[in-house]
TrEMBL record:
UniProt GO BP: mitochondrial proton-transporting ATP synthase complex assembly
Residues that span the membrane, as ranges: 42-60, 72-94
Sections of the chain in a coiled coil: none
Keyword tags: Membrane, Transmembrane, Transmembrane helix
Name of the protein described by the UniProt record: TMM70 protein
Listed InterPro entries: TMEM70, TMEM70/TMEM186/TMEM223
Pfam families: TMEM70
Family per similarity comment: Belongs to the TMEM70 family.
CC annotations in GO: mitochondrial membrane
Amino acid sequence: QVASFQGVAVRSLSTSSPHDHPEHGRLVYKGNLAKTVLGVKFFSYSTSIFNLFMMPYIMLKSGIGVESLLVQAAFYGLIGIFTFVTPVTLHILTKGYVIRLYYKDEVDTYTAITYNAILAEKATVFHQKDVKIPDITKMFTTFYAKTKSMLVNPTLFPNPQDYNHLMGYDKSSFFKFEDLEEVKEADER
């Protein structure tokens, strides 16, 4: 890598790839919806906070405080749904979306980076043997890492072998070559 610093060429002697992370390993996947997920969650949180701060003003100016108890409960319930339920639902739906996935060859571990409830990046470390594929296809789950559901797009893996190894497709096969030869021998008899 060559970088320019005030007209002087500086050569980096680093041997690692720009996709390597010293702690997590080699980058094998990068989700293309990471900025969208962050933006939608941020917008939802900011509108909820805005609603909480505007409620006293709206209550004072609208005169809803003098109406019946039933009208107050309906109004508070409607505002509460948009203020609290929407961000919680968005978090539940997107908490397993993997924004980056790293792999360490030496120890056969993966590190999945996701967003937590406060929009900070959260690292989940798991072994390949901890990966479970759901029996029934689920909408927001590609695989389970231990018990946590993860969502990745298989077409975004630059190297298909990385996806195959993650899912365990490279280790198990539906039939082995030896089994095929046994079937052939049985047919010949």
